[in-house]
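May I ask for a protein sequence together with how it folds?
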Amino acid sequence: METKDILKKLREDNNLTQDQMAEKLLVTRQAVSRWELGETQPNTDTLKIISKEFNISINTLLGSPRTLVCQCCGMPLTEDSMISKEPDGSFNEEYCTWCYSDGKYLYDSKEALIDFLISHMPNPENLTEEDRRTQYDGYLSQLEYWK
């Protein structure tokens, strides 16, 4: 889905006219109309306002051009409900809700996360705990949070 279609659907799903949407976002009705026609796109600041006002990530607003992955645990962030939020309610598209919440990281160390993974993730290959720790450590070390 393109940004123009996402914005129009978002407006319609919230039963707003273009005028009402414009008023909510502090822009003109003409700006909303141009977005929905695909003539222009909201600027970065307006995307942030739309994201916060309608509880939708900027990545989703832009048609999900990037595959988001939590930079702490590596989980694919396939739905907005999985994406963490800052204390002000804005999305933090770098982390999942299980690793970062309300401005706080939930794992004090990579070892603590690995301990959690060892106890909660399936082990279909029946690897030893040491091999699993090595495997998780190698993967997690590639993520921004652990570099």
Notes: Residues 3 and 62 are 5 Å apart (CA to CA). The beta strands are 83-85, 91-96, 100-101, 104-105.
